[in-house]
Amino acid sequence: MTTDTTTKDATPDATAPGQVVLDARGVTMRFGGLTAVRNVDLTVNSGEIVGLIGPNGAGKTTFFNCLTGLYVPTEGEVRYKGNVLPPKSFKVTAAGIARTFQNIRLFSNMTVLENVLVGRHTRTKEGFWSAVLRGPGFHRAEAASRERAMELLEFVGLAAKAEHLARNLPYGEQRKLEIARALASEPGLLLLDEPTAGMNPQETRTTEELVFAIRDKGIAVLVIEHDMRFIFNLCDRVAVLVQGEKLVEGDSATVQGDERVIAAYLGEPFEDAPGDAEVAEVEAAEAQAEAQTDAAPGKENDR
Ligand SMILES: Nc1ncnc2c1ncn2[C@@H]1O[C@H](COP(=O)(O)OP(=O)(O)OP(=O)(O)O)[C@@H](O)[C@H]1O
Ligand SMILES: [Mg+2]
């Protein structure tokens, strides 16, 4: 038996494995005549890393926006730990869902540390007047916030750059700073929209490790990525969105082996899978090429 000595205000069994953290049902988002997301169901359980993949324009970011109160879905319902989410992004953050953005959104003229401190505002109780008057309560809260922000920078590997301006960080580090800022709101679920976009393979690998470490801290993760190696290494479950609809969902092997997913990525209609005639044609061509290669050495004597 372990005793939890933290003072986190989470419900007692909120981090128990298998507990439903996110429950999105029948989420539909229409923009005028365009249905960007159509009737999507998705759950994320505690302890899970779930992937969301799909071709460009499939509706992945729009779905994230529906989960985080940036958009109010045309239809459907989103619950976080059993409660329907309020349709305001700051309230969703306060409820326990944090996110990063596909297009990095940092305060570029603030320092790295200040950016993380901004992410903490939903968790600090000190109000506006306290900040203006700067009484002892404010100073105590500020010191605690700084300490936590430094811990998070350490966690993502940016502590040494705490005083640098965010805009001077290389791109890969800006993405990590966004993750630190999201973690500053002490979420129970983290949504990452293309966290490795623009990263080199080494940075991608450290991001992979970082996401595992986040999961190990008891934070469930839902991640959008186009890097399939990253997704299939990382995720317990992967859902595939195509033209706004969830096409397939399952473990990595199930999704990788699904012909409809391959077809969706190749952009080919898969109703007419390669027929026997085409297969035979390819085999004949290969056999002919092989025969020519075998015959090739003899050509030397033809001279
Ligand atoms: N605010 C909006 N108004 C109108 N159409 C929108 C809006 N946001 C997204 N769309 C449209 O919804 C569709 C889905 O876009 P979305 O950005 O969600 O795709 P995505 O899967 O995230 O793509 P990518 O992999 O390129 O990031 C696209 O056709 C897009 O043009
Ligand atoms: Mg997107």
Automatic annotation (TrEMBL):
Where would I find the ABC transporter domain in this sequence? Answer: 22-268
Q: List the residue ranges of the region (Disordered).
A: 276-303
Q: Which Pfam families match?
A: ABC_tran (PF00005), BCA_ABC_TP_C (PF12399)
UniProt-recorded Gene Ontology molecular function terms: ATP binding
Q: Which UniProt keywords apply?
A: ATP-binding, Nucleotide-binding, Transport
Q: Where is the composition biased (Low complexity)?
A: 285-296
Domain of life, per the record? Bacteria
**Matching PANTHER family, A to Z?**
AMINO ACID ABC TRANSPORTER ATP-BINDING PROTEIN, CONSERVED COMPONENT OF ABC TRANSPORTER FOR NATURAL AMINO ACIDS-RELATED
Q: What is this protein called?
A: ABC transporter ATP-binding protein
Q: Which organism is it from?
A: Streptomyces lannensis
